[in-house]
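Subject: Sanity check before I submit

Could someone independently write out the structure tokens for this chain? I want to compare against mine line by line before I put it in a report. The sequence has 430 residues.
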Amino acid sequence: MTTPQSPVPESHITANGTCPVQHGASLEVDPDRFPMYTPDFVTDPGRTYDQMRRAHPTLVPVELAPGVPAYLCIGYQTAVRILNDPDHFPSDPRTWEKDIPADSPVRPMMEWYPAARYNTGATHLRYRAPSVVAIDNIHQAAIRAMVEKAAVPLIASFCENGSAELVMQYAFPLILDVLNQMCGCPGDIGERVALGMADRFDSDRVKAKQGMVMVRQALMELIALKREQPGDDVTSHLAHHPNGLDDIEVFAQLMSFYGAGFEAQRTFLANALLLIFTDPRFQPDSGRNLSTTDALEEVLFNNPPMANFCTTYPRQPIQIDGVWLPADQPVLISLAACNNDPHIRGAGTTSIGNRSHLAWSAGPHACPAKDVAYQTVQSAIDQLFDRVGEMQLAIRPDQLKWRPGPFHRALVSMPVAFAPLSKEVMMMSI
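---
Independent answer below. Compare away.
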């Protein structure tokens, strides 16, 4: 595999002896950045990626929010190079965030925490090892039981109506409930985590800030509980790992687990359901010749829940594919665009059974919980269809609304209709 060119090679020094991109240089001078916060991008990001590719083969100047410039990688091979080179492309944002306003809408997703995701080298390994142990101790056989425990009361709450809104009535609470079970979170603390998480993703900044305070207070109580009364759960394994994480460090790993797990899994679930509802290959009149796993793999390729993520910050100005990337400015990987790079997706290429996508990232920061997430979402879909039966969208697909933001590809809501059934029949249907 080809490695990135060394920072500031002599052949690229200008006549006055300086690099053409200074350390910490702002991208404000580039008038051709693609905004990733406009209604056009939210409605049809695929069209924007096509426009980007026509103008820039692999690295695209973008604006994540007004006044927040970055580069977006849309080339698969270039993304793999970046993701596997933490020496040149570390994930520590602390230099960058010094100049980012506290109320910037993208700061909560990008600011530094003492967690594996935001660190490199020995510090990254110190944080990642407890997380891997904690995740590996989630028993695969127990995941289906956790999902069933969460799914049954949710389905019971709407099965007699013949209609439901599957984002907020199913995907959101189910994934959060399962995460609470995995973390050994008691009911009273779990309710506060749920309320706080709901507020944290609210568009109202004051409400979102209050939600984060509630989540932090609840999780710190959970950590204190597991220090005293450990169990076989994620929080206990983090709190008692030999690497000796303090409470703030355990909280940071938990927030990565909840943050990435909650947002990515609930969106993964909703996007997979949308594909099943709208693609004829998954419809019963076609014999339903494709399975839930086929839907999941296709979504990870074509509509991944975290569409643009895996942010890195070059240590020094560096040239990749003829583009100079400034030091300490964010470089994001477009998982959605890279998965559909024409250089790897030929005319006959199918996403069914193909796991070469980057939806779980790659390199030292690859998602350690991908098997857990995959099985959780698969079980959630199977529970829904096994208990309710056939369902269909209650509105046209083009009437669905997508949540704004540069990072995810997430529905606002998904209303569906189905034949009503009693709770007793629903309970016996699996």
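---
OP: Matches mine. For the report I'm noting this point. The first helix runs from residue 39 to 43.
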